[in-house]
Amino acid sequence: MTSETDRFISSDPVRRRLRRLTRAERVEEAVAFIRQFAAESGHSARDTEQRIRDVRRSIRTTGSYWHSADELSFGARVAWRNHARCVGRLTWKSLQVNDCRMVADCDEVVEQTLTTLRQSFSGGKLRSAITIFAPATATSMPATFESAQIFRYAGYMLDDGAVIGDRLNIELTNVARRLGWTAPDVPSAFDLLPIIMRAPDGVRHAYSIPSDVRHEVPIRHKSLPALSNLDLRWYAVPVVTNMVLTIGGIDYPCAPFSGHYVVTEIASRSLIDPTRYGLLEPIARAFGFDPEEHDRSLWKDGALTELNRAVLDSFDAAGVTIADHHSVSDQYVAFAQLEHRAGRTPSGEWSWIVPPQAAAACPTFHLPMVNVNAVPNFYVSRHVDGADLAIDRTSLRDGKWRARYERLKRRWRHWRRRRDRIWQRA
Fold first, then answer.
1. Per residue in 10-31, pLDDT tens?
2. Rounded to two decimals, what is the model's pTM?
3. Exposure on the CB side of residue 32, measured as CA atoms within 13 A
C-alpha cells in the first residue's frame, strides 16, 4: 500500500470505518457468496462457475465487482439473517430491497431515502425496507449519513451542566447548529434534528425533515394521566443509517434500513438510560411511585412496567406497528428453529437478543447463543464489530483439516492487522 493511499484513507472518516480486505480475501468472500447465492437460489453449476470466473477477473483487474440485482437483494436479506444483534429476523425473506446504486448526489440520496420511508410506512403498518446506494471502492465513496438514525432528537447542554433532550445527541446537535439549523426559541426535550449528510468530498450538509414523514407518537397512559404532564413522545419509525452492509467482499456504507420498534427499546432504554434521557425518577413519580423509597420496594420495576404499557398503548392508538418483547422473543425462538432445520447456526448476541424488561420470563433468556460473525452482514466499524466478520465455514461443512487451516489463516490475518495498526501509530 502506497503512502499516498495511506494518507487518503487516514483523511476519510468514513473509509477508516470500513473493513480492510486484501485482494485474496475479497476474492475468497466473493466466491463463497456466489456459491451461497447459487445454492439457496437454485442456479445451475455451469452458470455459477461462469459467474465466479467473471467475478475473479473483475477483482483481478479493477479490485472490485458489481453485484447483479438478484445478488444484491439476496445479500441484503442474508445480511439481516446473519446479524446477531437483531431479534426480529423471522421475516428476513420479506425485506424490501431498493437498488439505488446509481444514485450518488446527496440531495438524491436523501430524497430516495425519504421516498422509501413513505412507502414502508404504509399508513402505520410498517414494512422492513433497505435502500442501498453505491458501494465503496478504492477510488470512490458514496454520500453517507452522519447520525445513527434518520430521526434524532436534539440534546442541549446548559451552562450549569444540565441537559435538555437526548444526551447521546449533544455533539450531533452542535454539528447541526454549525450547519445552519436553528433550535426553537424555547428548546424542548423532543426537537427533531435535521438529516445530516457527508458528501463524497467530505463536506457536510443539513436537510430539513418534511412534515409528511415526521410521524411521532405522544406517550400517554390510559389510567395514569399524570404521565401526560411530561409531554413524552417518540418517532414512529426507526431508520438505521450508521451500519455498513457488506456482501461478498463489497461494502455499502450508505444503506439505510427501516423496521419497527420493540417496546423495550423506547420504554426500558431510550427514555430511561442515564446516557440518554434518564427519566426514570420523574416517570416513576408520575405513576405514583416514590423514588426515595428503598430499592426493595421495587419502584423501578413498577415504573418500567407501566411505561412499557403506556408506549404499547400509545403506538396502538396511533395505528403504528410496534412489538412487545414477549412476542418478539417467541419469534426469535421460531427463527432459530428454522435456521437449525436449514442446517445453519443461528447467530445471536445474548445481551442484544434478550430484552431488558422481564428477561427471565422470555424464552430467549434460556437459549444458548453464539455470534457466528458470518458474512454477508452489517457492521458499524472495523474497529468495533467489523474485524471479526468472516465466511461461516461451519455452514460449508469443511473437513477437520480444512477447518483447522481456516482458523489458523484467520488468526494470522488478525495478527497482521494488529501489527499494521501498531506500526501506523509509531
1. 568 999 999 999 999 999 999 9
2. 0.92
3. 22
